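Support request from a user on the community tier.

User writes: "When I paste my structure tokens into the form, the page sometimes reloads and wipes my input. The last time it worked, I copied everything first. Here is what I submitted, just in case something in the input itself triggers the reload:"
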């Protein structure tokens, strides 16, 4: 098991800042939760603390970016993409300021703190804004690569990280590019497309399907929600195999609907199902308890797969 992606984010930021004084971390009372205390200790002139003022966070980051700084605006995803949405739309995307928006403790990472602290809307609202790349890395490798790529990118981007320690999913596939899904397991019987911390239970489900039922599933880490890897989707729909999407997000407006929209417009007839958080009052519990309740688990995804395959 590796580290939490938020920790890898911090470590990569420190590596980048060591040789690039333009790397600036802007936080909203979130250097602790964002694992940025060591960054602030090493590079006190490259961190800006605005306090619990997320709209100011995005505005300050946009100003720094407009002046040539590589500004990373770090805040809990639930607040960054709700309280600051107008600033994200106007000061970042519309103004084409290359801010790196970093949503930490995303999805249901805050667990028992409840719905106020869950970010189950962020894919949906940001997908509806022009000029915004949306990325949810699945493991430590993807996280490190995403932060490095984002630092070099001259476009607005949203990076989404959770709190849970994540395993290395496929060390033989060390390829990463924004807009290109990463295959972490290969199979010809069906496809499971997931993003962020739901990729691991999808991988576990595929492993169990093969061991217990002889079903071989391709598992894709669709780390870039926007722009979507439509070339890979074309390949997955080609043989009519069933397709499941899995996400730590409301079933409306996220990865599943993005895939469904594209596939339907291509005339796909594949059996298809979206797995995520339904449109209801979300239960309270740990991330694992919430995942298990809604079937975002090895057994839940396996059962859905067997249903689509009619086994």
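"...and here is what came back when it finally went through:"
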């Amino acid at each position: 098991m590796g580290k939490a992606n938020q920790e890898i984010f911090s470590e990569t930021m420190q590596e980048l800042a060591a040789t690039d004084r333009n790397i600036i971390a802007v936080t909203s009372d979130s250097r602790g939760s964002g694992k940025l205390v060591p960054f602030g200790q090493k590079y006190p002139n490259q961190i800006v603390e605005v306090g619990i003022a997320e709209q100011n966070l995005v505005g300050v980051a946009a100003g720094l970016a407009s002046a040539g700084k590589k500004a990373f605006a770090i805040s809990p995803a639930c607040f960054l993409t709700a309280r600051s949405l107008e600033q994200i739309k106007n000061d970042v995307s519309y103004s084409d300021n290359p801010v790196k928006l970093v949503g930490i403790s995303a999805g249901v990472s805050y667990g028992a703190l409840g719905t106020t602290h869950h970010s189950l809307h962020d894919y949906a609202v940001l997908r509806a804004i022009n000029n915004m790349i949306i990325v949810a890395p699945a493991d430590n490798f993807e996280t490190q690569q995403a932060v490095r790529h984002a630092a070099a990118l001259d476009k607005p981007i949203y990076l989404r990280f959770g709190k849970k320690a994540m395993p290395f999913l496929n060390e033989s596939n060390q390829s990463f590019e924004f807009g290109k899904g990463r295959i972490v397991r290969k199979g010809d019987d069906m496809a499971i497309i997931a993003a962020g911390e739901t990729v691991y239970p999808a991988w576990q489900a595929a492993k169990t399907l093969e061991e217990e039922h002889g079903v071989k599933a391709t598992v894709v880490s669709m780390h870039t929600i926007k722009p979507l890897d439509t070339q890979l989707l074309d390949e997955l729909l080609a043989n009519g195999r069933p397709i499941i999407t899995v996400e730590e997000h409301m079933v409306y407006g996220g990865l599943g609907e993005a895939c469904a929209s594209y596939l339907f417009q291509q005339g796909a007839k594949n059996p298809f199902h979206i797995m995520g958080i339904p449109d209801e009052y979300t239960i309270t519990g740990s991330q694992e308890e919430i995942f298990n309740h809604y079937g975002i688990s090895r057994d839940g995804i396996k059962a859905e797969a067997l249903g689509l395959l009619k086994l």
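Agent notes: The reload is a front-end session timeout and is unrelated to the input. The mean pLDDT is 95. The chain has twelve helices and twelve strands. Escalated to web team.
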